Amino acid sequence: MLYKRLYVIFFNFGIFLIMSIGVYAQDATESPDLPQIPVVGPAQVGLYELAEFQLQLDNTLYTNPFDVDDIRVEAVFERPDGEQVIFPGFWMQLYDENLVLRREASWFIRMTPYQTGTWQGAIEVYDDGQLIARTTLALDVTQSDLHGFIRLGANQKYFAFDDGAAFFPIGHNLNWSWSGAGGYAAYESWLNDLQANRANFARIVIDTPWFISLEWRPPIGDYRVSQEQAAQLDRILEMAEERGIYLQLVILWHQGLRFYNPPPVPLPSEVALPDMSADWDNNPYNIANGGILESPEQFFHNLQARQLFARRLRYIIARWGYSPHILAWELSDALDRTANFTPEVAALWITEQAEVIRSLDAHGHLLTLTTNRYIDGVTNHPDLDFLTMSYHPRQLISEDYTRNLINTIQTWQQLDRPLIVGSHSLSPWIPPLSEDPSGIHFQNALWGAVFTGAAGGAISDWWDTYILPLDLSRAYISLADFASDIDWPTMQFAPVEAQLTPLSDHVGAIPVDAVTLWDAEAGVGIAWLHHRDDTWEYFSQNGRPSPITLRYQLQSLPTGDYSVELWNPVDGVALGQEIVVVRDDGVFSIDLLPMNRHLTLRFFRQDNP
What we know:
Layout: H1 2-21, H2 25-29, E1 39-40, E2 44-46, E3 51-55, E4 71-78, E5 84-88, E6 90-95, E7 101-111, E8 117-127, E9 130-142, E10 150-152, E11 159-161, E12 166-167, E13 171-173, H3 186-196, E14 201-205, H4 227-242, E15 246-252, H5 303-320, E16 326-332, H6 343-360, E17 366-368, E18 370-371, E19 387-391, H7 401-412, E20 419-424, H8 440-451, H9 463-467, H10 475-483, E21 494-496, E22 499-502, E23 512-519, E24 524-531, H11 536-542, E25 550-554, E26 560-568, E27 573-582, E28 588-591, E29 598-605
Parallel strand pairs: 2-9, 13-14, 14-15, 15-16, 16-17, 18-19, 19-20
Antiparallel strand pairs: 1-3, 3-7, 4-5, 4-8, 6-7, 8-9, 10-11, 11-12, 21-23, 22-25, 23-24, 24-29, 25-28, 26-27, 26-29
């Protein structure tokens, strides 16, 4: 009965949302004598470039500029192909380039056209639900060399830009900053490091009390007190765009809806961390703090709370949804760790919020969600475009961390959409500086995820306290080089089994795992050979394992010449290239160099005359 009752509540709220955020373009066209509001903006932009329009409204028209029942501003455009799209407007307190407060505030429309030609449109203003002003405009969109927004690839397993180019995520989490880490300005050096090491991805949580947050500063539903933080995200996004970094923005931080449990290990005093004890007790939605909810789980089914979250989504999409450098909206991190989590309620909430986002985001960004464990109907909810996996063992794994991660990836994979490892670490509580100072688990997970079929390298935690101090980001260079020249969005990779034969003196089982992905139609293959003793624990006790020399063979390949490249993932060095001839017996065979960590192969069938 609870499930049915919640369904009725959510259905009725869906009607409410449509009434609240819908656009009444027909009303505007039937009112030609409406007042016009001066609008400042471009008449021409390039394809996938930002078009920003600014307008001033009488601030006596509204009490809360974020409440669409009070005041609503939006742009209604007819695309060159004739389809109508709507871009929500937003109110913004202005800051200069150094984030110094300016006196004025204004209303804006931000949109990024994704078709060439003329976009005919109008900016419309609604006061208390009544259309009160309308200004027409036209925008000419010319060709550019930009790639566009990120979508699902043709094979539904990897990512592609609008122009068809592959996007293969490589990077790490940049969850947040705080005063002890240098504030938002720290992102300049963090993003510089990603760029210098050929990375292209970062994940950011924009809902913590010490960082970018719209609602940790009461009153809830009114973001005027959070405008400085919102301006910081403007600048972070600009910095990411300048450096070719694409962001996954986490909208809801799970710990705000649970009660904090101190870690079972002491936090190292030499590592700077924000106050991670913030939880439901500090949340402005809590009735004890002047909010509207008596318990955290009410956030997902209380009508007013869901209305307020829809309002937050609208502002986020209106202000930052213009950017092609947002890979995806992530509804929540670790949703299943919120207090009194119920899969049925979570599934209904995802359905509802996905509908809100799709109705507001005319740019069509991808949508995802993170759970700590796989939950059918939630993790793989049909409204999610791809899966984001979190892998945080609750204790240091004494066996191979990478093998456990790979096994987990295999249980999470879906046939109809990509998966990325969006968060992982050897320890969920502290950076593993003493356990793995060489970053072995980091490097192995980075590559292991790729060859298990994930849509990018594994995305690690502890960026500022582990990855950067140990200069581990340099591992991204070799993966970026390796991933280039592979048309990931069209590959139909399938695992095939390779045979390994020792070429040096060796007794017993071969201590190497070989993982091979092969696209028979395209004639493209990639392989990863990993020494089983290449683990953080083995190295801490024994040092490097003894090298072994192997012959690598595949059976039943089409005849022809194959260009084969051998790579050292650790040093980022292409070790050599040769031609392997596959004859009528279908055997592909290559003798490898000695290895005690891992090697990778790329091979491409040549067009024989």
